[in-house]
């Protein structure tokens, strides 16, 4: 029976959930994809070839058992599929929405390599998890008994929340400290609603609270509470702050009004969606309505800014990126969505300066790709005499993020960092140079994907439990 449900990739074509038209979705910040129906989800899951060596799974940072939960979905055993899908992932409903599947699981699907079109893994993952919430299959966190040990987690992003989940399963007392007023980190304030609707995060945070996680929001370590207070209150501390310091440009005119950071722009838009009072948005400083917008950068944050500007009613939206389409770091699916919505990509172009006290234009140099560097990527080179000015009323810098100087901000001695400024920690145990202090997610590995932060947080929780087990064994001797 199971075999009849699978291996349908030769007779059934790849299909995604219905996508709203560009004109329709430009009018709001709702998610752009509909849900699969039961029949369609089972049909698409049944295209899986059930590989003996599943490359989809080996290229998934959380090592999802993808072929098995696809098979269960194809057989209509959705509750079992959900429980299997959530075993290695605290946020399967998030990853199903925002993971770059084209670069991870789906991009390494065997039937994709053979020309049949990848299984729509992300859409099925989203479907079975949303169904689980609707049907009440998502159970409260239960543990093996409350423990006396406590852990302080600094940062309520995906890494910190994933660790909190795993620690509460063991009965550890967990307090999460975060500088913002809502838990979720960039999942709440960095990623727009058309990719990740905010009730998806709020629902999961409430689940963690009901499971015994204590949240101390609006609590900035180093200002509202000292590092020594946090360290003294807990048996272990996990640093999961993420990276929020924006990379900047050094160019003439960079200080002009109307040149803003991507994180500020996206945060203002997301806060507005919550109904918050956002003076910088209302004044027009962080609002693209009626403006010619230029976004500088080619990653997923740039795509978020571009598509947000479209929805805010910009008169034109252009993306400047110094390499070509093939070599850009952002998801190709996001580029396609942006183009459908009216974004113009100006490939092989780089800013060299800005005009106007209130920004009026970006001085652009045309580029070509030269010889590969040590990483194998072709190095962009300026084409002499190709400069021109791109008109702009709002310029958004989406050049990536760097770590803050935590040791200095927090007044902590002995916390070693790498030459990039990230916290130096073992990539298996996540232990830092300070005893009982761990780090995970972007603050350890640099700006990366939500799914990598989830993996790191879960691994760090395991290492912390091993520390507690070791301390218990010593005490028992």
UniProtKB/TrEMBL annotation:
PANTHER family: GLUTAMATE SYNTHASE [NADPH] SMALL CHAIN, GLUTAMATE SYNTHASE [NADPH] SMALL CHAIN-RELATED. Residues 26-136 form the Dihydroprymidine dehydrogenase domain. GO terms for molecular function: 4 iron, 4 sulfur cluster binding; glutamate synthase (NADPH) activity; metal ion binding. SUPFAM superfamilies: alpha-helical ferredoxin, Nucleotide-binding domain. NCBIfam families: gltD_gamma_fam. It holds the Pfam family Fer4_20. InterPro entries: DPD_II (IPR028261), FAD/NAD-bd_sf (IPR036188), FAD/NAD-binding_dom (IPR023753), GltD-like (IPR006006), Helical_ferredxn (IPR009051). Keywords: 4Fe-4S, Iron, Iron-sulfur, Metal-binding, Oxidoreductase. Residues 151-457 form the FAD/NAD(P)-binding domain. This is Glutamate synthase [NADPH] small chain.
């Amino acid at each position: 029976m199971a075999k009849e449900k699978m291996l349908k990739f030769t007779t059934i074509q790849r299909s995604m959930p219905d996508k709203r038209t560009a004109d329709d979705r430009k009018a709001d910040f709702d998610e752009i994809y509909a849900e699969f129906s039961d029949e369609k989800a089972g049909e698409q899951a049944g295209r899986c070839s059930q590989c003996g060596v599943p490359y989809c799974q080996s290229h998934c940072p959380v090592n999802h058992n993808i072929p098995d939960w696809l098979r269960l979905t194809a057989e209509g055993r959705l509750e079992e599929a959900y429980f299997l899908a959530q075993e290695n992932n605290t946020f399967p409903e998030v990853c199903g929405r925002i993971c770059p599947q084209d670069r991870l699981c789906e991009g390494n699907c065997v039937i994709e390599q053979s020309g049949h079109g990848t299984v729509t893994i992300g859409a099925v993952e989203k479907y079975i998890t949303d169904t689980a919430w609707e049907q009440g299959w998502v159970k409260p966190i239960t543990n093996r008994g409350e423990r006396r040990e406590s852990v302080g987690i600094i940062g309520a992003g995906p890494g910190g929340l994933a660790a909190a989940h795993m620690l509460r399963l063991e009965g550890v007392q967990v307090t999460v400290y975060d500088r913002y007023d809502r838990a979720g980190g960039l999942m709440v304030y960095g990623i727009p609603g058309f990719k990740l609707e905010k009730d998806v995060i709020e629902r999961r945070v409430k689940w963690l609270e009901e499971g015994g996680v204590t949240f101390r929001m609006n609590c900035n370590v180093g200002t509202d509470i000292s590092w020594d207070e946090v360290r003294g209150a807990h048996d272990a501390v996990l640093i999961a702050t993420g990276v929020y310091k924006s990379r900047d440009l050094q160019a003439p005119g960079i200080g002009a009004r109307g040149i803003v950071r991507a994180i500020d722009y996206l945060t203002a838009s997301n806060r507005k969606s919550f109904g918050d009072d956002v003076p910088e948005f209302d004044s027009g400083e962080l609002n693209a309505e009626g403006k010619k917008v230029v976004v500088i950068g080619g990653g997923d944050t740039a795509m978020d800014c571009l598509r947000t500007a479209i929805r805010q009613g910009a008169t034109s939206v252009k993306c400047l990126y110094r390499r070509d389409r093939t070599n850009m770091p952002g998801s190709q699916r996001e580029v396609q969505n942006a183009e459908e919505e009216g974004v113009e990509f100006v490939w092989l172009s780089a800013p060299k300066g800005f005009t106007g006290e209130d920004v009026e234009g970006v001085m652009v140099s045309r580029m070509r790709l030269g010889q590969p560097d040590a990483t194998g990527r072709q190095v962009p080179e300026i084409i002499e005499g190709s400069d021109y000015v791109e008109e702009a009323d709002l310029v958004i810098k989406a050049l990536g993020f760097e770590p803050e100087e935590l040791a200095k901000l927090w007044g902590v001695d002995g916390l070693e960092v790498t030459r990039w400024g990230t916290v130096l920690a073992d990539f298996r145990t996540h232990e830092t140079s300070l005893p009982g202090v761990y780090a995970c997610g972007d603050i350890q590995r640099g700006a990366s994907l939500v799914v990598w932060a989830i993996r790191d947080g879960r691994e760090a929780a395991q290492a912390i439990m091993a520390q507690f087990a070791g301390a218990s064994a010593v005490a028992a001797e």
